[in-house]
Structure formats: C-alpha cells, structure tokens
Amino acid sequence: MTSTSRSQRTWPRRAAVAAGLLGAAMALAGCGSTIADRMPTAAGGLPEGSPQRPAARTAYPAVHDMPPARATPVLTDAEAKKLEDDLIETRNRAAAEAARAAAQAD
Fold first, then answer.
1. Looking at 38-42, 59-63, 76-80, 97-101, which range is the least confident one?
2. Residue 1 has pLDDT above 60, yes or no
3. Could you give the CA distance from residue 5 to residue 21 in angstroms, rounded to a whole number?
4. Is 36 within 8 Å of 44 (Cβ atoms)?
C-alpha cells in the first residue's frame, strides 16, 4: 500500500484555488477602464481634468478596401531597364571618383 503525503493531496486544491483567483482577477481587470470613469480621483479614478471618453466609438479602419487605381502608369520593361542601367552607371562613376580621391590623398 502506498501512502500519499498531505502536501501531495492538497496540491490539486491549491492549483484550483490559484486558477480561480487568477480568473477572477482577470475578469475584474477587464472592467477597470469603465469603472475608473465613475470613481473619484482619491479612490483611484481618473485624474482631474482628464478628457471625457468620446460618446460614439470610432470605426475600425477599412483594411480590406483596395486602393484606387494609379493615376500614372507603371514603368514599362524598357523604361525599367534604362533606369537600372543609369543607376549602375552612376554607382560605378561614384566608386571610381572615390577611388581616385583616395589615391590622391595618399
């Protein structure tokens, strides 16, 4: 016959009590923002001069709406290639000038 100690038998009860207290604290914390509107400042309510809550709730942003069509067309393949070539040429020219300036400084 195995015997269980007293602490092993009370563990599930303590866990249940702790879970109940945690659940009650979370439920009361959810009401805290609306209760604070009606409480006096000395009792932990909102400070003097704080703005009132808006009467109507704000609408959620329209995250699923598609943006309007572009007013200007997208670059064609030829235009994109020309722009890329111009950027590469500018980068190479700047690198060459930097190398030339570093060589003159030495």
1. 38-42
2. no
3. 25
4. yes
